[in-house]
Amino acid sequence: MRIGCPKEVKPQEFRVGLTPEAAAEAVGHGHQVVIEAGAGAGSGFTDEDYLRAGAQVAPDAAAVFADAQMIVKVKEPQAAERAMLRKDQVLFTYLHLAPDPDQTHDLLASGVTAIAYETVTDARGGLPLLAPMSEVAGRLAPQVGAWALQKANGGRGVLLGGVPGVRPANVVIIGGGVVGAAAARVAVGMGANVTVMDRSVPRLSYLDDVFMGKLTTQYASAAATADLIRGADMVIGAVLIPGAAAPKLVTRAQLSTMPAGAVLVDVAIDQGGCFETSHATTHHDPIYEVDGIIHYCVANMPGAVARSSTLALGNATLPFVMALADKGWRQAVQDDAFLRAGLATHEGQLTSPPVGAALNLSAVTPDQLLAS
Ligand SMILES: NC(=O)c1ccc[n+]([C@@H]2O[C@H](COP(=O)([O-])OP(=O)(O)OC[C@H]3O[C@@H](n4cnc5c(N)ncnc54)[C@H](O)[C@@H]3O)[C@@H](O)[C@H]2O)c1
After folding, report:
1. Are 286 and 144 in contact (CB under 8 A)?
2. Catalytic pick from 49, 96, 105, 367?
3. pLDDT (tens digit, 9 = 90+) per residue, 67-120?
4. Which of 12, 1, 76, 63 is nearest to 35 (CA)?
5. In Å, what is the CA distance from 88 to each residue of 6, 18, 211, 312?
6. Is any ligand 1 atom within 6 A of the Cβ of residue 81?
7. What letter would DSSP give residue 166?
8. Residue (of 186, 73, 96) closest to 135 by Cα position
9. Is the CB of 352 under 6 A from ligand 1?
10. Are 113 and 157 in contact (CB under 8 A)?
11. Residue 238: which of 251, 222, 220 has the closest Cα?
């Protein structure tokens, strides 16, 4: 199969869909890989790295799209990219179609077979192509929060790990899923006094087991949240209610109960944020202050560490890329129900009922499509 990987064109996106290692693996399986010149630069990969892996380098995106039977990307295709998609092509990337009628319309009009990273599932009911980015954002959260706590950034001038004779910072993490557990691991490692709150008792029990006394778990009632944030130097918002906007768990009125210069890191900002005073920020201008509390609300946190993020995403996507290339999309999704869950469009047919419901479009399930 001819696999194409264009340079990402969405602003502030430095990841790339295929690493040189992934390209080498595909070439080793007898496939051709065509990468756009400079596509890996944002993640620290040169064109020479791809050439050494056996890939070809194309001068521009048009050449990649024209040549490829399968396009592997990171972000949803932008309008100019969508115009280059074809009926005989497979597109494998993040799509996030439900809030995006224009993209959905264009993918359907192109006839492309689109498979969305974010809806591929695994045997444990998880989302294996979303989890690596949650791991990255979670581990980054205490790091950026520690930076924001520094005096020059408006923070209260508290060192996360304290020093002998001076207590460490209190870090409260609301939501103990993938992001929350990853944040807890780094905050504990930095020596902070960490409390993780969740509404799932089994999840709290799991965290209590694996951290073996290095953090405190607390059921996330409104009263417990109000109580804990009063003494918090940093609060990390990491909740998710699948398919819904994040619930607002800290109100503006509560900010005045927190120590001046405390920091809120709202990782859940991509779902609207879980603090009432959150609004999305960018890596160029990541923090702002409301009522003396510093807010960090970057919606694409993994972009700050593009190289690590590309490698983590590439590890997760590679087995699926290889299955799609080796078997062709139809056999690959027939053999793998978890990959099948990612099928979003095929030859003008929407194959994601949740996207259909969100956009008021008719849709069939991937199983119905394969049976037809
Ligand atoms: N900003 C970014 O760059 C970025 C990157 C990755 C993920 N995210 C976001 O981070 C959030 C968390 O993702 P995740 O992968 O950890 O999800 P997850 O499903 O693994 O974990 C979410 C946790 O929140 C808990 N929860 C739900 N409602 C709660 C409540 N009211 N109080 C306390 N806990 C509650 C759930 O029980 C679950 O344990 C999501 O909104 C995700 O989109 C943001």
Report:
1. yes
2. 96
3. 999 999 999 999 999 999 999 999 999 998 988 999 999 999 999 999 999 999
4. 63
5. 18, 21, 49, 29
6. no
7. B
8. 186
9. no
10. no
11. 220
C-alpha 219, offset from chain centre: 26
Q: Is the Cα dihedral 229, 232, 233, 234 positive or negative?
A: negative
Cα atoms in the 13 Å half-sphere on the side-chain side of 69: 12
CA of 268 to the centre of ligand 1 (A): 6
Check: CB of residue 129 under 8 Å from CB of residue 321. no
The answer, yes or no, to whether any atom of ligand 1 lies below 6 A from the CB of 239, is: yes
- Residue 139's alpha-carbon distances to 94, 130, 133, 182, 242, in angstroms, are 21, 15, 10, 5, 21
Token digits for 202? 């089994």
Q: Are the CB atoms for 32 and 3 separated by under 8 Å?
A: yes
In the chain, how many H helices and how many E strands? Answer: 15, 15
How close is the Cα of 105 to the center of ligand 1, in Å? Answer: 29
Q: Look up 96 and say whether it is catalytic.
A: yes
pLDDT digits (tens, 9 = 90+) for 297-336: 999 999 999 999 999 999 999 999 999 999 999 999 999 9
Ligand 1 pocket, mutate which of 118, 208, 240, 276 (most atoms under 8 A from CB)? 240
Strands annotated E in 189-300: 193-198, 216-219, 234-237, 263-266, 287-290, 293-296
Among protein residues, the one whose CA lies closest to atom 6 of ligand 1: 134
pTM (global) more than 0.90: yes
Residue 360 sits at φ, ψ, to 5 deg, of 60, 45
Q: With a 6 A CB cut-off, is 283 part of the ligand 1 pocket?
A: no
